[in-house]
Amino acid sequence: MKPIPYGRQHITQEDLDAVNKTLLSDFLTQGPAIKEFEDQFAAYIGARYAVALANGTAALHLCALALDVNANSTVISTPITFAASSNCIRYCGGKVELADIDPNTLLIDMDAVENMLEQAKPGTYTGIVPVDFAGRAVNLEKLRAIADKYKLWIIEDACHAPGGYFTDSKGIQQKCGNGQFADLAIFSFHPVKHIACGEGGMITTNRKDLYDKLQLLRTHGITKDPQLLHENHGGWYYEMQELGYNYRLTDFQAALGSSQLKRADEGLARRKAIAARYDEAFAGTAIRTYPVPATEGHAYHLYVVHTQRRKELYDHLRANNIFAQVHYIPVHLQPYYQQQGFRKGQFPKAEAYYEGCLSLPMYPTLTDDEQEYVIKTILTF
Question: What would be the CATH architecture of the domain defined by 4-261?
Answer without folding.
Answer: 3-Layer(aba) Sandwich (3.40)
